[in-house]
Design goal:
The complex is a heterodimer. The relative contact order of chain A is 0.17. In chain A, helix 2 crosses helix 11 and helix 6 packs parallel to helix 12. Chain A has one domain. By secondary structure, chain A is mainly alpha-helical. Chain B is mostly helical. Chain B is built from 24 helices and five strands. Chain B starts with a helix and ends with a helix. In chain B, the strands form two sheets. In chain B, strands 1-2 form a two-stranded antiparallel sheet. In chain B, strands 4-5 form a two-stranded antiparallel sheet. The chains are: A mainly alpha, B mainly alpha. The interface between A and B is large, with 87 and 87 residues.
Chain lengths: 311, 662
């Protein structure tokens, strides 16, 4: 058993690793996409360059906007950092803050960042941004039940209701119930793609304002504000990916460094998988996505009922 | 206890002052506000004592009415409702002072203030009454006083209609409450709460009592489908009154129901399941209808239905927890419900006051006509935004606490291996998650369309922040939202004594149950404070970047089309259209599409409206049916005396024969 100070150190190490490595994820996704399209593509570290460049710029605000517009990037980045504080960022390390029911806070922290992003979009007075905001709340309202049911199924399977304990229980007896884990993994994958505005729910690279969802809501941001938003969404991707890795790659060798390395590579593998999905799939028609999300919720509810019945 | 009585007496005296103040409405208003405040101060001591220690205080005087006694008492449950009641009443009264003055309908403002005082008095008596007859009298006083307040603007036809619906709905509910107390009284031959005999679990009378209390108190609380008066009465009433009605009066339905539960002994499993079903349907349908509304106060009224649904989910988890023998689940469920009662009182009170200010300054409550108000009235905007974030249950505001406790209760429930409890918890988790997502949609729309963007019509042009008397109550409530949200476990621990009273569990069991939530809540409060500090840091960081201080103003990006007019903005109905479309099978929104078959385009209009489906499809046909029935009955009423004498003779004959043959 490792003592408390070592655990605390590991928690900090994991948290810092996530903060530093998260901007790699979009880089990996883009690299996979460009490779499969036969292009060389932007460098892996592109987001780091972008963030650095954006932080050195001034800002232009629309004269329609108010303080809400200025506050939203700060709130959404803080909320994303908050989520990384309550999840075990590199699997083997405990979370910085862990308590019973922190899975609920996971969902609600993204809730507050969404509330501000959406109101900031309406603050610009642009009809495109209003449209994006309207679609965002539609998807979120349906993704949230799917996500929370999936997490409850995990909680029920491992008989624990805090993320740190779920992560460690998942690695102690991996694949205790393969069908449930499979169903939950599919749900989490769908939620990951939707919440992070990826194909098939949203296309981050689309060139027409009318068809964007998340990207259109941040059209009017520039400079440091935009850097916050980009960084926040990279952190969000890390948070969702680490949930998936924890249940489908529950490897424990006993060595903290090795476990963390495997976990981080797991996250990069998920990013690559997102890149593959984006390369081989087209975006769904708008009215098909609610059906996808309801299906995801049904899958996770099945998973939960399966766990309940097996006891 | 003496102080409490003195407080009630002062409140009563002060409510009669407006009747004699004539045209000096300011004196009337100030008298009532001061009376309520005195009452709050005088009763605070005994309430706080009871909440912290679990002590009960009683006082009883004889009355000349049969079965009645003037028995009052304070126990943790009463104290838990009385404190927010008097606090919100004081703030609403202060807000009302200048609100009513500006409404300039001096003619009846004296009467309005009289009824305001009487309403507060009636509500307080409901909470502390310890005798069935006294409770019913107070209940009627409360209902009638609020009816006269709702119909304050009685020159308007819509207001008279709303008042009428409210009066009928309240009295149908009251009939069931009468039945509840009649059954209780018959069972124990007394109407004093202290001498009620215990009722055996599962007996017919306990079932009958549960159902009639659920219907009676549920209609006041606004459970679907008994909620129909809420979306009518709230928009009709002056804002400080709707704030009081939505903030606390509908909670007295919850109070009455919880009080009845304490008479009924151990609950069978189906009671909890019933409440979870009611809570889930009220919550989801309430917020869906709120989303589809175009009137700010109707939106808030439907959102009250949703929040009462959340409270019912918590009570349901509590009841199921008790009947399954899981004290932790039960305690967390009840505590979540109680905490949400207080939190909803604060943020819904705040939102109605904010809505009142908006309507007052712009002269319209239609969301589609507003916009950009945050620049004209910044303080109101911040308060309204705080209330909205709270009502969505977002941390670090207070709305999160109650929902978190209910979630935690459901998560504990789902991980127990008991199938009924686990399934109930599953339903609670799904509905709370869906409600949370939809509430965010609904209130980001409310804030975004009303306060942000550009003004959509001329109404919003001359708006500005109201004077201090209206602003200060809102600011106090907004600060309370944040303060309770950051208070961590202490707010939850305050519910301990009241939870013990409702659930019948020992104080030790309740403390243990709440202790499981204490660490999470403290951790959340800590994390929230950390994140607020982080936000501050990010703000300074943005300023201190090399060109961070350079801010240029420009137009909003509109694909290169820089001469955008406000009408181009997304509207409230277009914002909610994807969700209302998805749930069209429940909402039955009526759409008037223009005819576009003409060869040349001409001016067309398009409109949507989402009326209440229960009113349209259940209550309206029922009323029509009863009207026809009454018409048939009326045909026996001929107006000729000899026919009436004939009726009397026939009745006497039948009675004699019945007696003879028996």
């Amino acid at each position: 058993m490792t003592d408390f100070s070592t655990l605390l150190l590991r928690a900090h190490a994991g948290f810092l690793a996530a903060l530093i490595l998260a901007p790699l994820i979009p880089g990996i996704i883009n690299r996979v996409k460009s490779l499969s399209a036969g292009r060389q593509g932007p460098p892996l570290l592109q987001l780091y360059y972008d963030l650095f460049k954006l932080l050195r710029k001034g800002t232009v605000y629309s004269s329609t906007t108010s303080w809400v517009f200025r506050m939203a990037p700060i709130v959404s980045l803080s909320a994303a950092v908050g989520v990384l504080m309550i999840i075990p960022c590199t699997g083997a390390s405990p979370a910085l803050i862990s308590f019973q029911g922190d899975i609920i806070l996971f969902a609600y922290l993204f809730g507050i960042s969404r509330f501000f992003t959406v109101t900031a979009a309406l603050d610009t007075g642009s009809s495109f941004e209003g449209m994006g905001a309207s679609r965002e709340v539609l998807y979120a309202a349906l993704a949230e039940p799917a996500f929370l049911i999936a997490l409850s199924a995990l909680a029920c399977l491992n008989n624990r209701i805090s993320l740190t304990q779920i992560f460690s229980a998942a690695s102690e007896n991996p694949f205790s119930n393969i069908s449930v884990i499979l169903l939950v993994a599919v749900t989490l994958a769908i939620v990951l793609l939707t919440e992070n505005c990826r194909i098939p729910a949203d296309d981050p690279n689309t060139h027409l304002e009318l068809t964007m969802i998340h990207e259109v809501m941040v059209l009017d941001y520039c400079g440091p504000d935009f850097a916050y938003i980009l960084y926040g969404s990279a952190l969000k991707l890390w948070a969702f990916a680490s949930l998936l890795v924890a249940i489908i790659l529950p490897v424990r060798t006993g060595s903290f460094m090795l476990d963390s390395t495997i976990f981080i590579f797991g996250i990069f593998a998920i990013s690559a998988a997102v890149g593959v999905i984006e390369s081989i799939m087209a975006r769904f028609r708008l009215d098909k996505i609610p059906k996808l999300l309801v299906a995801a919720a049904a899958l996770s509810a099945t998973a939960l009922i399966l766990t309940l019945i097996r006891g | 206890m003496k102080l409490l009585l003195a407080g009630f007496f002062i409140l009563m005296i002060s409510s009669f002052i407006p009747l004699f103040s004539g045209k000096r409405s300011r004196i009337a208003a100030l008298a009532v506000a001061a009376g309520t405040f005195c009452c709050l101060l005088l009763s605070a001591g005994v309430c706080i004592d009871s909440l912290f220690t679990g002590n009960t205080f009683d006082v009883s005087y004889r009355m000349r009415i049969p079965f009645a006694s003037f028995a009052l008492g304070i126990d943790p449950l009463s104290a838990f409702f009385l404190l927010p009641l008097l606090m919100l009443s004081t703030l609403c009264a202060v807000y009302g002072v200048s609100y009513m003055e500006k409404k300039n309908s001096e003619a009846s403002s004296g009467a309005s203030w009289f009824f305001f005082g009487i309403l507060v008095l009636g509500m307080s008596l409901v909470v502390v009454a310890r005798n069935g007859m006294l409770f019913l009298i107070a209940w009627e006083v409360m209902t009638l006083a609020s009816f006269f307040l709702v119909t304050h603007d009685n020159q308007k036809k819509s207001v008279r209609k709303a008042g009428w619906i409210y009066l009928v709905a309240s009295h149908i509910g009251a009939a069931f409450i009468f039945a509840t107390f009649a059954m209780l009284g018959r069972h124990s031959d007394t109407l004093d709460f202290a001498t009620f005999q215990t009722i055996t679990t599962g007996s017919t009378i306990s079932t009958a009592l549960f159902i009639s209390a659920l219907l009676g108190f549920g209609s006041k609380a606004g459970f679907i489908p008994l909620h129909i008066w809420l979306p009518e009465a709230h928009p009709a009433a002056p804002s400080h009154v709707s704030s009081l009605m939505s903030g606390i009066m509908i909670k007295l339905g919850i109070y009455g129901f919880l009080r009845t539960l304490t008479f009924l002994g151990d609950p069978p499993l189906w009671w909890g399941i019933t409440l979870i079903i009611i809570g889930a349907s009220s919550g989801i349908l309430g917020i869906l209808f709120a989303l589809a509304q175009q009137d700010i106060k109707r939106l808030l009224a439907y959102s009250s239905v949703e929040n009462v649904g959340i409270i019912a989910l918590g009570i349901g988890m509590g009841l199921v927890g008790i009947s399954c023998g899981e004290p932790v689940v039960a305690v967390l469920g009840f505590a979540g419900a109680l905490l949400h009662v207080i939190n909803h009182c604060i943020f819904k009170g705040l939102l109605f006051l904010g809505a009142g200010t908006v309507m007052h300054e712009t002269g319209t409550g239609r969301i589609e006509e507003l916009g950009g108000l945050v620049k004209k009235m910044p303080a109101t905007g911040i308060c309204f935004m705080t209330g909205s974030a709270s009502i969505c249950g977002l941390p670090p505001f207070n709305g999160f606490l109650g929902e978190f406790l209910i979630f935690l209760s459901a998560l504990f429930g789902v991980t127990t291996s008991m199938i009924p409890l686990s399934f109930c918890s599953l339903v609670v988790i799904i509905s709370l998650a869906l409600i949370g997502g939809l509430a965010t949609a609904c209130f980001s729309k409310a804030v975004g369309i009303i306060f942000l963007g550009e003004p959509r019509s001329k109404c919003a042009e001359h708006a500005r922040d109201p004077d201090k008397a209206m602003l200060v109550p809102m600011i106090i409530l907004a600060l309370l939202c944040l303060f309770i949200g950051l208070s961590g476990a202490s707010a939850a621990m305050l519910t301990c004594t009241a939870v013990s009273e409702i659930s019948g569990l020992s104080m030790a069991a309740c403390t243990t149950g709440l202790k499981t939530a204490a660490y999470p809540l403290t951790a959340i409060a800590m994390l929230s404070s950390l994140l607020i500090i982080l936000g501050g840091f990010l703000f300074t960081l943005r300023r201190s970047t090399p060109r961070g201080h350079i801010e240029t103003q420009g137009p909003t990006w509109d694909c290169g089309y820089a001469k955008a007019v406000p009408r181009i903005q997304y509207t409230s109905s277009s914002f909610s259209q994807p969700l209302t479309q998805l749930f069209a099978f429940l909402l039955k929104t009526k759409t008037k599409l223009p005819d576009t078959s003409a060869t040349f385009p001409e001016e067309k209009s398009f409109s949507t409206e989402t009326p209440d489906i229960w009113q349209e499809y259940i209550f309206r046909p029922a009323v029509i049916f009863f009207n026809r029935l009454s018409a048939v009955a009326a045909s026996t009423d001929t107006g000729r005396i000899h026919i009436y004498i004939l009726y009397i003779i026939v009745t006497i004959l039948i009675l004699l024969m019945w007696n003879f043959f028996r």
